[in-house]
Amino acid sequence: MKNLLRCVGKRWGTAAVFAVLMTVVATAAYAGGTLRVATMGEPASLDPHKVSGTWENAIVGDMYIGLTTENPKAEPVPGVAESWTISEDGKTYTFKLRECVWSDGTPMTAHDFVYSMQRILLPETAAEYASLLYIIQGAEALNSGKAEADTLAVKAIDDRTLEIKLTGPAPYFLALLTHYTAYPVPKHVIDKVGKEWTKPENMVVNGPYKLVEWIPNTHVKLTKNDKYWDAGSVALDNLTFYTQEDRAAVQKRFRAGEIDVATDFASDQIDWLRKNMPEETRIAPYMGVYYYPINSSVEPFTDARVRNALSMAVNREAIVDKVLKTGELAAYSFVPPGVAFYENPAEVEWKDVPFADRQKKAKELLAEAGFGPDNPLSFTLRYNTSENHKRVAVAVVSMWKAIGVKAELFNSEVKVHYADLKQGDFQVARAGWIADYNDAQNFLYLLESRTGANNYGRYANPEFDQLMLDAEVTSDLAKRSEMMRKAESLAMADQPVIPIYHYVSKNLVAKNVVGFEDNPQDIHRWRYVSLK
Amino acid sequence: MFAYAVRRLLSAIPTLLVIITIAFFMMRLAPGGPFDREKQLPPEIEANILRAYNLDKPIHEQYLDYLKNIVRGDFGPSYKYLDFTVTDLIMTGFPVSLRLGLYAILIAVVFGVTAGTIAALKQNSTFDYMVMTFAMTGIVIPNFVMAPLLALVFGVYLSLLPVAGWGDGAFKYQILPVITLALPQIAYISRLTRGSMVEVMNSNFIRTARAKGLAEKIVVVRHALRGGLLPVVSYLGPATAAVITGSVVIESIFDVPGIGRYFVNGALNRDYPVVMGVVIFYAVLIIMLNLVVDLIYGFLDPRVKVE
User: Fold this and answer.
1) Could you say which of B80, B81, B268 has the minimum Cβ distance to residue A413?
2) Total-model pTM
3) How close B137 comes to chain A (CA, Å)?
4) Domain boundaries in chain B?
């Protein structure tokens, strides 16, 4: 526990200094103006309990602020909670809330958080992301309709003190509280207008910006909320989010100066962008993994030698350097580098073996498993329709051909692809995962046998499962990360998944935008940004 | 004529019912559901969501419920745009698509008919070849090439017009989408007009009109055009329906908040209520526009009697 506090303390110390500096710079020099941001798509909702995408997070994250919130580097800093204490066993958090109000002037209290956490977990809310809060005692039972709302271990001790009890010590809990699933929503408004509460005339917020206008499939406009407790340090007066999905069109708008920040750009544009807009093109490591799950429940993929052979034969450097060219990192571990409290993810043992030797070894493994020139391994590689997925799949299949493996390509639209993966109806397939919170557990749980559908390949290793269970109840950070690393190295030896590359975030940021910091979660709060 | 229109509209009801039924079950037959995605939902959450949208009921009950709801005018919620109902989406999107579509059709008719008529009258002249070359080009260049090209030239290079966006719906935001929508229609209409005008100009009643000593202008405008426009009019019915219901390509490239994208995206997202809503909407529009075309036919062609 001490470790955690020290670690968090240190991070927050620098963060606080930084935030203050940012604020001074922002307000002193360049206050005011409208920032125009192109998000990756239309928000499904502006109700934080109903959203599930990064593009929605980019909007609601400046309308609502949870107990903790992100700094410009996306690290957790105090939000509505100004301070807290954590019990010795790491399972009870007691938050002291600051004095603040909703945008309509109604005071905010601890009861707002009790209401909000109950609301997202109630089965009738049908919140897609509710499971993120299952770490709270009673959350899972409430969400599956087995318990009443008041059994949830989120209690208001008084108006400004909130207590939350967890099922285990989760060092990522403070980071998790920055997530939109943990945002407060205004009970007094929802009780009055029901579903209509996200309409501009009704919507009440507690963050720096409030809703002015939302025209589906074109834009969302926000304006500064003067009642926000730190309104003085918010530079921009207005935010306009364009929800256009077509990246080529967005890039043209950016070139024409109609957009200041464009999240994500088409990979095939990278050469042009590097040449013509090197300063505006921002590429940074991103907390996600692009991988091929192998269905370990069907022959011959039940054999770890076959899985390893397939993985060894994939030349990741060729894929990132020649096929993608956007700075992605070749992946030899499942967890990407740079995850909090988890230095040096466990990589495959053969990472440093020269590629030619790896190919030789792969052939040997296949021969041991009974495959050779007379009896080649043949199967289908599935991917969801997309130009990039196709390019990677074609490259991988030709790499497999070099070791005598015949793989056929099969593509289907995204809904069909994932419905079939859920059913286990595949041999080898394309998948990707972007972390919900900054913790190795958020990646490794995909390989636990209890995970269900998201463990596409049905990997089941009792030793791996046990290590993950042990890590869940360990409060010592070093020990916990050691357990998870051990689990990951087991998985890397078994290769139930072929990690191919770790994602990068891709943004276009105009030169006059100040305070936009690249960070591994690609979360950018506009309240820290200004225009010069 | 009024009785005829009413009869036609009444006979549309069984047609609509068939369309609704086929669309409903075909949508459900498509593999994958509205909530399948990269991050799979835990089973209890999926159960909550299915229950919230009544998708946990047997399919025939869902179908009957749906029919009951649309009779009451309730087209249900969207699964993708959670804060809006299908009616909201169509009602905010359609006026935009309608406006762009009507401009485009109007421009297409004016330019297309004029160019086609002149080309027919000056058959095999340079003007004729120019118009027909332009028409061929307009038809073969797809809008997903034309739209980015126009945006690049007028938006990025010349900075005359916005590259994309809708802003407050001002005129400047509509120019490029309308041009992109109108170009292929101008092309089709001019070819249609030319073809049928060439035929009409060689027919007996035109020879009679000329023999009566009528001025060439009157022969063309009063006699020939009336017959020559018939194929254009029958083309305009479905074409208008297609154009005023928007285009997913043009809306995506110019970021226009119309309803065109719901046709395609609704299907890709398995957003059942949105798909059903736009299918019904489109069907009703086509039925109405075909009726209008038939009524105009009766007016233009003395051989057709609306009875």
Assistant:
1) B268
2) 0.87
3) 23
4) 2-71, 89-300
